[in-house]
Amino acid sequence: MTVTIPVVPENAPLERSTRRRPRTRRSINLAAGAVLFGVIALVALVSLLWTPFAPEDTGGGRLEPPGAEHWAGTDRLGRDLFSQLMIGARLAMAVGFGSVVIAAVVGITLGLIAAVADRWLDDTISSLLDIAIAFPTLLLAMLIVAWRGASLESAILAIGLAGSAIIARLTRVTATRVLAMEFVTASRTSGTGVLGVIRLHVLPNVWPTLIVPLALQFGGAVVAEASLSYLGLGSPPPNSSWGRMLQEAQSTVLVSPTAAILPGILLVATIIGANLLADGLRDVADPASRSIG
Amino acid sequence: MTDAESSPPLGRALLAAESVGFHYRHGEPVLRSVSVALEPGESLGLVGESGAGKTTLLRLLLGLAAPTDGRVLFEGAPVDLRDRRGMRRFRRAVQPVFQDPFSSLDPRMRVGDSIAEPMRSLGLPLDRAARAARVAELLAAVELPADAAGRFPEAFSGGQRQRIAIARALAPEPRLLLADEPVSALDTSVRMTVIELFLRLARERGIAMLLVSHDLTIVSALCARMAVLEGGRVVEEGPTARVLGDPRHPYTARLLSAVPRLPAG
Amino acid sequence: MTALLDVDRLGVRIDAPDAPGDGTLVESVTFGLEAGDRLGIIGESGSGKSLTALAILGLLGHPLRPSGAVRIASGGGIVDAVTAPLRRMDRVRGSTVGAVFQEPLASLDPLMRVGKQLSWPFAHHRGLRGDALRRAVLDALADVQLAEPERIANSYIHEISGGQRQRVAIALALAAGPRLLIADEPTTALDVTVQAGVLELLQREITERGMTMIFISHDLPVVTGITDRVLVMRRGRQVEIADTRALLTAPAEEYTRTLVAASRALDALLPATGGESA
User: Could C195 and B263 be called an inter-chain contact, meaning their C-beta atoms sit closer than 8 Å?
Assistant: First the structure.
């Protein structure tokens, strides 16, 4: 059959600008977060190579105020506070990154399984996740510590597992949405198997949604570890967690306020820095323009 | 319905549905004993409104689900979703084009990678350079510039994205294209160009086409034969010109008269 | 006759830093409507036709900014939808200007039964209560040719079909007795047989009530079947405005010609009908 086709110029391709130009407040947030977090991370790195004093060195006078020799003063056993604070930074970074990695690996895996699984398996996993989310992190941490003994590893494991439940739920929801899209059907008819679909299509469209929640978990992890150490359930001395430092400095706060204030300030700075950075990451990832999630 | 108007014998057909039925676990049947067949190089249109079961039939014919009754036959043999090698051969030969150009391409994959995906997943013996060459060739076949391969779908309009989807469908050199409302989501001025593209490709490559649509004009443009689905059953079938010119079933007549027409002259 | 609607160089801009170009989405749309007119607005995706409708309804929110003037004769005076405060437009919407949109699943409340939603304009604009209110709701549902009005009134919108939903949306739009109805792609999401019924319903209601209508669509055969004048839009600009007949037989602008030609080419694929389209 013959069909006369009128000549119609096709609409020009739409080149939309995909990045939101950062508004002033956003770039201040990102810069401030980067600076705060960056300084603490730098201190943590440096502590691997050098600290003014060895942390277990009890040579200094007891509860000295900040001075030329001991920049932040000393604690009640004569140990240099500045060195302890530096190592505390290292600990905070280790806990933050370690638990985020665990939360990501465990959470994403569970979420993906739930998304592709049969109804009954999906329901089972979802129910377990709901229970896990309702379960207080600290309680879970205490159980794990009771089982494995108090240590840095136990703390990281506990906090990571506790955080994985939310990541799993988020992954499941986003992955389900992606799996319902036509390009996934097209992928299946292209011969791609389930694992291939997950690797090629699901993960790339899901991970931008996860960046911010995972980044926010960093701050939560640092607080959680500090709380555990404060309660004496974190890594045992001489590991210098800021939480433990706070707990020790409590009884002598009137005599040596800096020993109590400084760990607290650093905790707050780290958490705020991590959160501001996470907020800034939202723009960098900017899923809205490209991905589905 | 005379013999001359019914489907070809199922044994010769490239793709066929043999008394296919489908129902969800506790639901009403969506399809009831539907039989259609397509020979190599033929074009068949499946017309129906929502709830007629055409989407389900399409999924069954694409091997995305198994019928609860009857069978889907590919080159005379039943399609077995669990037979990996068989499914591979099936997928190389039978490729889809979907309705929505905005969700049928992965927004995070470059166009070239989307087009190449069937080549990789179906194990075509091509190295990276050969694949890239083929992608360029396919883009040319659908009248898109070669540099489109490096860009993301968001840079393209609906009509262009549909061309990309067609290029992807052609990648494994299929013998049958299954198109689901391929131009419904496109602007009027663009529809004819995409229809013309389908016609040209089918002619040049001898590809059979099964078109599922509620739009009679598209079926009229692209399909030599058509079947009308209502309530999960085929109610009329035959050469397109005959069915549209002289509809025998009341539903077909109703469909035809419901299409908004331009005043004559 | 006094003009019911006077659209004077209407423009719409988007106030966002990442918008392409200078953010102009609609530019210099101008037309007028007398009582009883039926105007079609036809355009492809991105033409700005829906934005124009929203501007007339005063429903453009930040970051969209209208400019120009949209003068509506309402309540004895003239209201300019571009500058009028929200509260003033609230009184215009429903009672002077009603609207039906493309997707009833989005424009109707999924958590409220149909009867309850429909009772609101009767209660608010006409002050009906109790039995009189219930009567009015059931009558409205029967008026849009819904069989079993009681059952529909008790249902949620996801429990009824697409065509039924759109009829409910029409009933809702007409409930307060507006003089102007704006229908934005009201049948695009419907099956073709259902579409025919809904279009017929719209025609009947507009005629019986002596209303004015703006019918927006991308589908030329649909628009020309239901309107006497057509405005063609492209990329935010007004290309041409002419009587329907004239537009189809002798379009003045290049773009209109190609649009009509494309529609004719598609139309020619089906056997010719006896005369005028439905």
Answer: no
